[in-house]
Amino acid sequence: MSIEELARANVRELVPYQSARRLGGKGDVWLNANEYPEAVEFQLTAQTLNRYPECQPKAVIENYARYAGVTPQQVLVSRGADEAIELLIRAFCEPGQDAVLFCPPTYGMYSVSAETIGVEYRTVPALENWQLDLQGIADKLDGVKVVYVCSPNNPTGQIVNPQDLRVLLEMTRGKAIVVADEAYIEFCPQASLVGWLSEYPHLVILRTLSKAFALAGLRCGFALANEEVINLLMKVIAPYPLSTPVADIAAQALSTPGILAMRERVQQILDERQHLVDALQNIPCVEQVFPSETNYILVRITASSAVFKSLWDQGIILRDQNKQPSLSGCLRITVGTREESQRVIDALSAEKV
To answer: What is the pLDDT of residue 315?
Structure first.
């Protein structure tokens, strides 16, 4: 029996998540991963690398709880929000029996995580305006243990209607966990569901330091939930999910000065986003610029695949969304520096339509 044949069937057939770095490219303008465009400097202060780290570093947990407005008992820190996505499936879904559900177009790791664990995933395509199809969800809810909703949604950029989320939470009460993926919430903090945790014991909120905190390379994320859920996740998390340097830098980023610096970065990105939106709307090959509450913009472009390749060849790396449901002709552009935005504007303006 070959090595390939020894592997689980679903893993043999699995298409891995195509992360920005996995897709490659040799660009010098990287606008395909929704990262902050400039490095933020930190100095390591912990010198205890001979010891294993805490499973849940106290300073990180306490600082994030203070920032998010929850208790430390409602916080779990993980290797990016991606690990938390997987932990929820492992804690709540029986392979071959239970299912997860999500609403494409949305983040690709929900399906990958389910497949690697051997749990069925069901999809209910979003409506034309990319809001939830509540009736469609209700029709497929039997046997579903975890529902993922990304808000603001990646890659479309819009907030999910709060009233629809309330209907979903009522619909799933006592039946399933609802996971609100708030990876981009710092760009629209008024839309967070964190204030709903006391009302909905089955609500889980995912957060990250990868976007507004400019720490994508740190791989540090959070699950916010009621203590009962956190205790279950603690049973399935790895013994040492965060290395000592990661915990050290995360605690610094979540200090009062660190949070003030993050908010300044957010304002800078919002200003730059508006500049980019205004310019894109005047470019002939740009058919539509969709509203965004994030650090990226979804754009429908004439001959988008050819344009994507043209910019790729010029060292400008965007994210092609053509294969996502309802996103034919769409490219996603991360908001970068003013210079990077100008490179995109000039390159798109030069495209012949």
So the answer is: 94
- Who's near 124: CB < 8 A, 6+ residues apart? 101, 102, 103, 132, 133, 136, 137, 140
pLDDT attached to residue 19: 61
Give the whole-angstrom CA distance, residue 156 versus residue 26. 26
Is residue 98 within 8 Å of 141, Cβ to Cβ? no
Residue 24 has pLDDT above 90, yes or no: no
Q: Are 176 and 145 in contact (CB under 8 A)?
A: yes
E strand segments, the chain: 29-30, 75-78, 99-102, 120-123, 144-150, 177-181, 203-208, 221-225, 286-289, 296-301, 316-317, 319-320, 330-334
What token pair was written down for 232? Answer: 């279950």
Please, what is the end-to-end C-alpha distance for the chain in angstroms?
54
Which residues touch 118 (CB under 8 Å, ≥6 apart)?
8, 10, 95, 96
What three-state secondary structure class fits 206? Answer: strand
Burial class (CB in 10 A: 0-12, 13-18, 19+), 41: exposed
Is the pTM above the cut of 0.85? yes
